[in-house]
Amino acid sequence: MVRVSIIGATGYTGVELVRLLTRHPQVEVAALTSQSYAGRRLGEVYPHLAAALGETVLTDDVEAAVAGAGYVFLAMPHGQAAEPAALALAAGKRVIDLSADFRLPGETYAAWYAQAAPAPALLDQAVYGLAELYGPEVAGARLVANPGCYPTSALLALAPAVRASLVDIGSIIIDAKSGVSGSGRQPALGSLFCEADEGLHPYGVATHRHTPEIEAQLSRLAGTPVVVSFTPHLVPMTRGILSTIYAGLRGGVGEEEVSRVYMEFYQDKPFVRVLPPGTWPHTKWVYGSNYCLLGLTVDRRTNRLVLAAAIDNLVKGASGQAVQNFNLMAGFPEAAGLEGLGIFP
Amino acid sequence: MVRVSIIGATGYTGVELVRLLTRHPQVEVAALTSQSYAGRRLGEVYPHLAAALGETVLTDDVEAAVAGAGYVFLAMPHGQAAEPAALALAAGKRVIDLSADFRLPGETYAAWYAQAAPAPALLDQAVYGLAELYGPEVAGARLVANPGCYPTSALLALAPAVRASLVDIGSIIIDAKSGVSGSGRQPALGSLFCEADEGLHPYGVATHRHTPEIEAQLSRLAGTPVVVSFTPHLVPMTRGILSTIYAGLRGGVGEEEVSRVYMEFYQDKPFVRVLPPGTWPHTKWVYGSNYCLLGLTVDRRTNRLVLAAAIDNLVKGASGQAVQNFNLMAGFPEAAGLEGLGIFP
Amino acid sequence: MVRVSIIGATGYTGVELVRLLTRHPQVEVAALTSQSYAGRRLGEVYPHLAAALGETVLTDDVEAAVAGAGYVFLAMPHGQAAEPAALALAAGKRVIDLSADFRLPGETYAAWYAQAAPAPALLDQAVYGLAELYGPEVAGARLVANPGCYPTSALLALAPAVRASLVDIGSIIIDAKSGVSGSGRQPALGSLFCEADEGLHPYGVATHRHTPEIEAQLSRLAGTPVVVSFTPHLVPMTRGILSTIYAGLRGGVGEEEVSRVYMEFYQDKPFVRVLPPGTWPHTKWVYGSNYCLLGLTVDRRTNRLVLAAAIDNLVKGASGQAVQNFNLMAGFPEAAGLEGLGIFP
Amino acid sequence: MVRVSIIGATGYTGVELVRLLTRHPQVEVAALTSQSYAGRRLGEVYPHLAAALGETVLTDDVEAAVAGAGYVFLAMPHGQAAEPAALALAAGKRVIDLSADFRLPGETYAAWYAQAAPAPALLDQAVYGLAELYGPEVAGARLVANPGCYPTSALLALAPAVRASLVDIGSIIIDAKSGVSGSGRQPALGSLFCEADEGLHPYGVATHRHTPEIEAQLSRLAGTPVVVSFTPHLVPMTRGILSTIYAGLRGGVGEEEVSRVYMEFYQDKPFVRVLPPGTWPHTKWVYGSNYCLLGLTVDRRTNRLVLAAAIDNLVKGASGQAVQNFNLMAGFPEAAGLEGLGIFP
Questions:
Q1: C99-103: long-range contacts at Cβ-Cβ below 8 A with a sequence spacing of 24 or more?
Q2: Which of C149, C156, C253, C322 is catalytic?
């Protein structure tokens, strides 16, 4: 058994980590920290977890939580990971951070987040935790930067095409749609039921902070700088991200070739499924699960590749991917604790 | 490993059985039947199951499906269970039926369902599968009538009070609210998104078929005939039932006594949790799980007991409860395959 | 043209007043006040109103707003109406208050709201504005206490039966279900999309503040003190209240008599429609409109009357009813500005 | 008063026409036809309309319905408009058809709808009823082809840019999201609440029938053939379409210029509102109303114009636009009967 602690256990990604880790056969939860609910039992704050760790008392003693564990998950808002990360690494612990704080080069972070990168000294050791692309690096990492929810969906959809140079690198447009849980649990006007229900809208057009994260990884895959259009939308559902992606095809590339490249790219990856051409993913098919479903077609009329990727933003887009990375780091089977299928309907 | 077959595997309760049974450590699925999708792969019809039994080809050969299994789940519409049940029992198999066909005495069935009971000869051997009340009987049964979704919530809420004679038996009012999945997967006007979304309404007032099922079991618990008011409502959500229940208290009964009776009644039951007075269950806390959460209060102003029970209608109200009964029948731990916690948010 | 001002114009009931009043043929809006958005244009804060009063600049000058109008609508949180009401009345204006501050006798308010009634000196002149019951009083009032959303639905459903002594006055149970907009626009955890979506739950069981309001009016109708059970529930929809109501019938009362009493009671009331027995109201049928739909049945098995009332909580349950009262006060046709039909689907 | 009939009055667009026309000051409804509900009263089938035309008996006598009216609205499924259109035109009536039957050249229709155009002989007289572009033509038309819901949103967003040659005509990508009411009222698996709730998915990628309609009109505006990528998505809401659109900018075009072009293009159009750069439309802001809201930005990093258009698919995308066209034809104010503001929240 490996002992883990979660720093920031009562946000949405925190409780999703709890849900997944309590099903993990080789994990023991050492401590759960919470600023808002310290001193209260988990089952009282989140009755859906009562049957597992319901009696666990939440703590605000981050140091003790780190000390008692071999692996530390950081599930805190952006900008707050530096201190606990440094603390844990100094104590020889291995860290999976779910925030954006270690995903970007310092200058890029500063440019898009309007503040200095929180812990530039640690950036060197941070490995970008998209397991399907960088599994071996993740396995050896001491500090994993767990990818953002939108980048996870966009990168899994685009990676095979970009690496195989199937598409015109300057033509990529990512139109993404997310459920409301991506906004977190802080009461905010735009997250109210009455504001978000029965309607949808774009936000952060051409300015969203996941843009440079996507571009950095695509540039790495392409071996050349990539700039993309990225538009997120808020959709009236709790979970789920769908990214619909458009890219101009390099001359002569056909659907059969694209399909083959994708099937091969993901043939050994347990959590990515390439659907047959003409089948398009529903986000509900991955509700509560760690899977990513990919649909694709080649539109001959426009000579564009159209891709769609569906994930559960709280699982593959956050906590499930964190557990997947943890499994790689700890030498466990990649899918341990992540076998749950989508809840449908 | 025990081999099981599901007759009617592609309705909502059927696929929920598949989801749960594929996580069961001691179960092997022998066959899945479907009238609508025979010949197609399960993963094609239901991509959320692709990672588990996705390659399984659906069959319409009920006889072979029964022959290959030791236990048979019947997940078909009401009125169609007689034939496969008789077939399975004659072949020495044990049967869990999710329809209403074996839940009521013949005359009661005929009176409320406007047709003769499908298999009167088998009614004698049918055990009503509310595991919390009739566990030992279920363990020895060859044919289990899995309870209806509404009755499950109402009976778990009322059983302690009725058995302990805390309430006036003639005063019981059950106001129940259900998600739309209770209506099944048949395309019908009232189940359309645009008809059910953003509104709610009562239906089947004073005439719903789950009324006699509730009354029969309450009468058994009370040892005297019980008549109740039961009103179901359709609520704009996919899963979940909440039953809010009102009953006049026998003289002098107070909240402390009621609370104690409930805690004791369910102290050994893994799937029923009595919440502390003043905490009221949300159906979302049991989304996707087999738990039933109970809230209660004694209203001194009106001298009434108010109860609320929350379940996931497709899990504890159908397929999860069926697996729970199967576990008792097969001698497995009661919670095997049912450890999944609620998905929240 | 009559000039009106809205004090508190940017909460949900405030903007619904704006929507309705801009369609009123004899109303001119004098001023809209807002604490949060003073100085901004209405159309910027609420783009759905841009085409009507979009250029109106919100003000926080309550005195000027009152001075410029003949009628003043108060659409503020409970406990804040006293001052503007006193101001307006002293200036000879007529007031329609949408809060609870003038609905209850002082002691009752204090007992249920845990604070002293805000303006005891004004309570004498306050008329309870349920137009269908107290139309003539409303017409002559200087200060109208606009009813609560839950009480509106419960009282319209119960009034004919209680006044005609059809039911046992001690047996009334009101199980009510509301959309989330009843919680207002203040960001609060329980009003978040992810907390309220895809689930429902009771709240305020046996303690909700609308209980004494319902009881006070039923007592007035019955001529004797009435105590009821009232349980509100939060349902995943934006608008709508459905109250399902149970009451024991006095000996020998049948469905025909009940139906006749209801039809007669509401025959001249433009906004209440009694549905034929067996038809049950959907809240979506009144979405955005000022109508109240009533369904009823007599359950012979239990000798109970079952009633269901559907309203849009923001229209008939708040702002629409306020306009209806205003029409009576100003001598306009009762339905002026309220002709909009429900939006379906 | 002008007499109008609706052929196919009980589908979703049919009842929305009824809702709007009953508020029209100069319209009298002559007859409402329905195949499914002939002989029943409208108020029985659709209680939300009970207060207006509730007593109107639905008929299946199309000939009489046409004969009794001066204007005829056809609100039937695609492929069924030919006969009633021919009938009405022969009798000297003026026709507004809400189906696709008169929107496309015959060969294009045949190529995309997999059947011959229903009434090639009438195509000549058909005017494409996008009032903001072709108002004068509509005013003189005898047969108006009311635009599709997706094309309405896409064309209103793109028309100013295309006509002013601001964008590279080969680079247009339209990513559209629709509520479920676009699928109509026929019970179908994909329209079930449990299938559509809490998830979203693309459909008809690169093959949707609204593609040629969009292309035909853009080609007309550009004066040269235009081919676009168009991807529709089904979103868990009843009403609303949001089209997010990407196009490469011609050299040197900046946000100020684009914004000015859009403001000027729509300055006299009552139903299109161009939002200030940085404000993005929510579909809920137009819920139930005939407005189209446009948001736009110039993304300097990618040199693309990003547009977003929000409409209510049943109003501006269907029945409201039909009434707008009718107003132009009959010489009424363009907004008569369409003054209703969006219902928010």
A1: C99/C74, C99/C75, C100/C145, C100/C148, C100/C209, C100/C213, C101/C145, C102/C126, C102/C143, C102/C145, C103/C128, C103/C145, C103/C147, C103/C148, C103/C213, C103/C216
A2: C149
Q: Are residues B209 and B163 in the same domain?
A: yes
Query: Which CATH number belongs to the domain containing residue C17 in this structure?
Result: 3.40.50.720
Between chains, do C306 and B177 touch, taking CB under 8 Å as contact? no
| Shared domain check, B304 and B245 | yes
Please give, rounded to a whole number of angstroms, the shortest distance from the CA of D235 to a CA of chain C.
Answer: 15
- Chain B neighbours among C 228-287 (CB < 8 Å)? 228-229, 231, 233, 235-240, 242, 244, 246, 280-285, 287
The token pair at B316 is 């504890």
Nearest Cβ partner for A194 among C194, C198, C238: C238
How far off is chain A from C159, nearest CA to CA, in Å? 31
CA of C208, closest CA in chain A: separation in Å? 22
Beta-carbon contacts of D5 under 8 Å, excluding residues fewer than 6 positions away, are D29, D30, D31, D32, D33, D65, D66, D68, D69, D71, D72, D73
Domains held by chain B: number = 2
Whether residue B268 lies inside any domain: the answer is yes
Count Cβ atoms within 10 A of the Cβ of residue C186 and give its class: 0-12 exposed, 13-18 middle, 19 or more buried.
exposed
Q: Is B292 considered catalytic here?
A: no
Q: What residues make up the domain containing A95?
A: 2-128
Residue A339 lies in a domain: no
User: Which residue in D27, D117, D149, D172 is the catalytic one?
Assistant: D149
CATH number of the domain to which B171 belongs: 3.30.360.10
Q: Which residues of B touch C345 (CB under 8 A)?
A: 194-195, 197
Tell which residue, A334, A275, A345, A341, has the closest CA to residue A310: A275
Positive or negative: CA dihedral A160, A164, A166, A172: positive
A135 inside domain = no
How do the pLDDT tens digits run along chain B, 345 residues long?
Answer: 999 999 999 999 999 999 999 999 999 999 999 999 999 999 999 999 999 999 999 999 999 999 999 999 999 999 999 999 999 999 999 999 999 999 999 999 999 988 888 889 999 999 999 999 999 999 999 999 999 999 999 999 999 999 999 999 999 999 999 999 999 999 999 999 999 999 999 999 999 999 999 999 999 999 999 999 999 999 999 999 999 999 999 988 999 999 999 999 999 999 999 999 889 999 999 999 999 999 999 999 999 999 999 999 999 999 999 999 999 999 999 999 999 999 999
Q: Quick check: C19 and D341 CB within 8 A? A: yes
Query: Catalytic positions of A, please?
Result: 149
ipTM, 2 decimals?
Answer: 0.97
The reported pTM is 0.98
Judged by a CB distance cut-off of 8 A, whether residue C201 touches chain B is yes
A47 with B282: Cβ contact below 8 A: yes
Residue of chain C whose Cα is closest to the Cα of A194? C238
Out of C98, C128, C158, a domain closes at C128
Q: How many CB atoms lie within 10 A of CB C251?
A: 7
| Interface mutation vs chain D, best among A153, A205, A239, A294, most D CBs within 10 Å | A205
- C9/C95 same-domain check: yes
Largest CA distance in chain C: 63
CB contact under 8 A, D287 and C343: yes
Q: Using CB atoms within 10 Å of the CB of residue D140, give its burial: 0 to 12 exposed, 13 to 18 middle, 19+ buried.
A: exposed
Identify whether residues A75 and A174 lie together within a single domain.
no
Residue D325 lies inside a defined structural domain of this protein: no
Q: Does D192 touch chain B (CB under 8 A)?
A: yes
From the CA of D323, how many Å to the nearest CA of chain B? 23
